[in-house]
Recover the amino acids of this structure.
């Protein structure tokens, strides 16, 4: 009788630990997925990216195009250029403009005039 009770307790402990582990994995799966994606994005260099959409989805990359406007590759953008672009983007949106990114680069579309790098959207 003592062996059956001992086996029952060990089995219950095993199932309890398995249940707790399953709940832990279920709850933290989304968090670990985002951590893994952030790590992969951090270690990925733009030169290894061959997909145009993937290149455009990263703020630290820009596309390289040949003379026929066909996507040829991807390259890194310097941190200084990214900082300037981010400042311009914030200034654009704060002054009523719309930030636009395409194969030719990033720019501000001002409905009321033109974009000035120090004042934002200004009237002509």
């Amino acid at each position: 009788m003592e062996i059956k009770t001992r086996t029952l307790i060990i089995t219950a402990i095993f199932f309890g630990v398995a249940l707790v582990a399953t709940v832990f994995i279920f709850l933290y799966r989304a968090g670990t997925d985002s951590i893994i994606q952030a790590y992969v994005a951090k270690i990925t260099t733009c030169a290894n990216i061959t997909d145009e959409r993937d290149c455009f989805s990263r703020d630290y990359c820009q596309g390289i195009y040949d003379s026929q406007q066909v996507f040829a590759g991807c390259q890194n953008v310097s941190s200084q250029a990214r900082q300037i672009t981010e400042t311009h983007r914030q200034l654009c949106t704060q002054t009523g403009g719309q930030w636009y990114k395409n194969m030719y680069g990033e720019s501000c579309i001002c409905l009321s005039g033109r974009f000035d790098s120090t004042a934002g959207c200004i009237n002509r």
In short: The chain has a mean pLDDT of 86.
